[in-house]
Amino acid sequence: MSDASFEGRLERLFAQPPRVQDPEAFAARVEARLDREWSLRRGFIGAAGAIGGVIAVTQTLGGELYGRLAQAIGPVRLDLDTEAGRAWYEGLQSQSLLSGEAMWVIAALAGLALTLAVTRAADAF
Amino acid sequence: MGGLTSANRSGMHDMELAALAAAGDRRAFGELVRRHNPGVRGLLMRMGADPATADDVAQDAFLTAFSRIGDFRGEGAFGGWVKRIAARAYVRGWRKRNGEVLGAEPADDEVSGGEGAAASRIDLDEALRSLSPAERMCVSLCYGAGFSHSQASETLNVPLGTVKSHVKRGLDKLRLRLAAPGFEPQERAHV
């Protein structure tokens, strides 16, 4: 047999896989590992989002935003001892996007994201 | 994607499945694994891996293939692409375990095609056992994984001449074994 024909025959023989144990179970194991890694990744992203949300809320609540905002955009120095100052501040609070209700919505969303992250992490294991 | 059933996927071409997998369809990739895992695991065993090691390396190779599925452009067969990933991974592990040098040649380099071969049917896997580890590795890389001699030399980190001589000696031995009387080629139809 010539070199070329022997090599061609060898390539054909190599192309025929030998019998291996349970190819279906092997494929199922690979799919399970893919699913696990996918869930972990989603869980990680969810957790990162939740942590970011919590940090944002705490920073917003703890940063005396209203006071600083009022000082920054108030037409005059804010004096809460005067009637006009109190009225302006209350008006700002009720009209601002960062009103008390908005804070609760943000906190609820952060809680929701955290719950989602925890459930996904639980699914992964 | 969600509407596809496993029956749909099993009728698809590898390229279609690879495109779905690149879009994140893990079940489509599972179908590719189902089709090609015997070939990949078989190659690793032919390179000298025991079945457990072959399974581990093949699993990692498929996971690597999934993460790099966007790189698969379909210029060659999907199975060949994963085989090359797996072969490189196996060689890396093999080199870590055995050092940088390909194993020494066995004392008796001569192979007879005599009584033992004639007495029983020999297939490729049995014939490969008569090769030294280095010959087996080089022949399997070049004829099983589709590496050129220079790619094999690069992967194994040995000179090109060394690869060529291992391949030549390996082929000589295989030619003797496979030509032995009693050898019945086990060529099966490709699916």
Keywords for this entry:
heterodimer, A: 125 residues, mainly alpha, rod-shaped, B: 191 residues, 10 helices, 64% helix, 0% strand
Structural features, described:
The complex is a heterodimer of chains A (125) and B (191). Chain A is mainly α and 125 residues long. Chain A is built from 5 helices and no strands. In chain A, helix 2 (23-62) runs antiparallel to helix 5. Chain A is rod-shaped. Chain B has 191 residues and is an all-alpha fold. Chain B has 10 helices and no strands. Chain B has helices at 6-10, 14-22, 26-47, 51-67, 78-98, 115-119, 124-128, 133-144, 149-156, 160-178. At the A-B interface, helix 1 and helix 2 of A face helix 3, helix 4, helix 8 and helix 10 of B.
Beginning-to-end CA distance, first to last residue of chain A: 57 Å
Tell me the series of helices and strands of chain B, N- to C-terminal. Answer: HHHHHHHHHH
Chains forming the largest contact:
A-B, 29 and 39 residues
The biggest beta sheet of chain B is recorded as: none
Give the helix tally of chain A: 5
What's the story with the biggest beta sheet of chain A? none
Average predicted confidence as pLDDT of chain B:
83
What is the CA–CA distance across the termini of chain B? 26 Å
Please give the radius of gyration of chain B in angstroms.
Answer: 19 Å
H/E element string of chain A? Answer: HHHHH
Taking pLDDT < 50 over at least 5 consecutive residues as the criterion, the unreliable ranges of chain B are 106-121
* Tally of DSSP β-strands of chain A: 0
Q: In percent terms, what proportion of residues of chain A is strand?
A: under 5%
User: Outline of chain B, from the CA principal axes?
Assistant: elongated
Indicate the percent of residues in helices of chain B: 55-70%
